[in-house]
Amino acid sequence: MIITDEKLLRVKCEEVLPDEIDSLREELEKELKFSGELGRPGIGLAAPQIGISKNFAIIRINTQNGINYNVDLVNCRISDKHDEFLFKNEGCLSFPGEQVDTMRYKEIVVVDNMVKPHSFIATGILAVCIQHELDHLQGVLLPDLKVNR
C-alpha cells in the first residue's frame, strides 16, 4: 500500500545491496500496478512510498508517441542539471488529488554507482520524474517543492 503520511515518508534511505535489487523492483512494480488498478495510475514509485527505506525507485512511462521508459534508480544521484523551468501540475501517488507547480530541470545527468558505475542524460518528462523520485529518497516531498505564484 502506498504511504500517504508525511511523517512516514521523511526517512533516510540506506544503500541498496546487489542481492536486494530484484525483490525491491518486484515490490515496487506490484504496488505501482495495484495503484493503477485502483484508478490512481502513476509513472514512478520510490521505495519509501511503500515503507522500505532503501535508495531504490522505478519509473515506468509509456508515452502516446510510442516512447517507453523503463528505468530503475538504484543508489543514484544527480551530478549535473541544466535549464531550470516551471513544471506545472506535478502530482504524487503519496498525495492523491494534489497537484502543484514545481521548479525542475529540463536536462539532468544521473550517476548510477550500482553494479557497473555509469552515468546517463535524461531530458523532458523522464528528467522530471527522476528528480521527483530521487527527492523521495532524500525525504523531500511534493509539498516542500510547491512554487507559490
What is the compact description of this entry?
The protein is α+β, with helices and mostly antiparallel strands.
Walk me through what this model shows.
The model has no long low-confidence stretch (mean pLDDT 93). The strands form 2 sheets. This protein has a 3-stranded antiparallel β-sheet, with helices on both faces. Strands 4-5-6 form a 3-stranded antiparallel β-sheet. Helices cover 26% and strands 36% of the residues. The protein is an alpha+beta fold. The chain has one domain: Peptide deformylase (Peptide Deformylase, Alpha-Beta Complex). Strand 5 and strand 6 form a beta hairpin. The chain contains 4 helices and 6 strands, in the order ααββββββαα. The longest helix has 17 residues.
